[in-house]
Amino acid sequence: MRQSEPDVIVRDPIWDTIRLEPVPLRIVDSGAFQRLRHIKQLGHAHLVYPGATHTRFDHALGVYHLARRALALLAERGQLERVTATDRRLIPLAGLLHDIGHYPFSHALEELQADRIPGHHEALVGRFLADPAVAVALADIGPDAATRIEALIRGASESPLQGLVSGSLDLDKIEYLKRDAYFCGVPFGEVDVDRLLHAMTVAQDAHTGSLEIAVHEKGVAALESLLFAKYQMFRNVYWHHAVRAATVLYKRVVSDALDAALLEAGELVGQTDDGVLHLLAERARTCASAGGQRVGRWVEDLRRRHLPKRAAEVVAADLDQVDVGAWIEFDTPLKRRAEEQIARDLGLGEGQVFLDYPEKTAMFGLDLLVVRRNGRVTRIGPGGQAGLIGLPRIADELYRSARVMRLFTHGERRSVPAADLAALAALDTEDILRRLDSGTALLSAT
Questions:
Q1: Whether residues 40 and 12 fall in one domain
Q2: Final residue in a domain of this structure, among 307, 330, 363
Q3: Residue 322 belongs to a domain
Q4: Are 58 and 127 spatial neighbours (Cβ–Cβ below 8 Å)?
Q5: Domain containing 97: what range?
Q6: 13 and 107 belong to one structural domain
Q7: Residue 2: inside a domain, yes or no?
């Protein structure tokens, strides 16, 4: 390491001061990392919450900061004696780099069918770690630093500190809930960060003998509040109806652009929010196809906040007696065919209907060691544990109250009975295919 390089202090509205040492500073100064300044943390949420213009850049610095704080607290208590010095150095860097592969507008494009994009943002990390400036900075840690950091980010590392980067209580969750709530101006994401950090420890799994990040029993209440904050943020911010309206329109813009050959999937990697919209708008101007022209109009609609409107919605909790067809949950060609048929049913043009049923099955996922007051180490799974942590046992009910199936129309507003949408959702793949092949109206024929 170049010892003469000074540390740099960054002022942050959430954590006050963040100290960047020479290696992370060189990473931050790289073009690959600076791109994160131009990717909004919450995608299109700023169209609903005007303050939500914070970026992946801000968030990554925050995770790096929390990683340093967590390591310092663990070291003070002698919890890192069996953790190598290299592992300790890698954790803050993994926190800093965990989002470096993100697509424009964050997670939206990862909802497209898997073969439409080059991969999940974590699967793209390796490409960005190979950036010359990043690679040179990481070489100061060791020749295998990039490989080990990628494993940490993808949750595939054998490091005892893996849980700080990817796990039930990882620092990413703590940071984004705190930051997102602050910039959205809502009280839902309040997390007792100090309590959680002080409750973290390293414990040994009695079954595997491996060391893992764990939490003391005294921190369980703070952990429950974190899980509930996550639920509140999904219900009120991440899955707000207008946020989802913008998201489905953006996904359709990109999907249709791929179909119209306005861009190739690989061009989405390394783009910024404004960059991808500008690229699509410019190419649409010279595209003669109807699909290409539609892309251009919809890019302008996104920029002007002309969003699809709700025609119907059904809370997942109201679908308890409905076996929801798998076709409606994912953006597939079959779902697109159904949307186009519904558009015809409603007297709308091509591309003016969107079905949306977002999913986050791991919203309350738990796989975490807890050190009890008597010293016994217990593993908590998805079901929680009686007398210790109860929230996971009601997770399904909370998830179903946050999750909403919606039918949106664009250009012209329509109203559809919620019962018709629920009946549509109950159709299985064979039913949908049969009705589509016969040209049967999906809404009126349910």
A1: yes
A2: 307
A3: yes
A4: no
A5: 8-239
A6: yes
A7: no
Residues 324 and 199 in one domain: no
- Per-residue pLDDT of the chain (446 residues), as tens digits, is 455 678 999 999 999 999 999 999 999 999 999 999 999 999 999 999 999 999 999 999 999 999 999 999 999 999 999 999 999 999 999 999 999 999 999 889 988 888 888 888 788 899 999 999 999 999 999 999 999 999 999 999 999 999 999 988 899 999 999 999 999 999 987 889 999 999 999 999 988 999 999 999 999 999 888 988 999 999 999 999 999 999 999 999 999 999 999 999 999 999 999 999 999 999 999 998 988 999 999 999 999 999 999 999 999 888 877 788 888 988 889 999 999 999 999 999 999 999 999 988 777 778 899 999 999 999 988 777 767 777 767 777 888 888 999 999 998 999 999 999 999 998 999 999 999 999 899 986 44
Same domain, 271 and 295: yes
* CATH (domain of 30): 1.10.3210.10
Same domain, 407 and 258: no
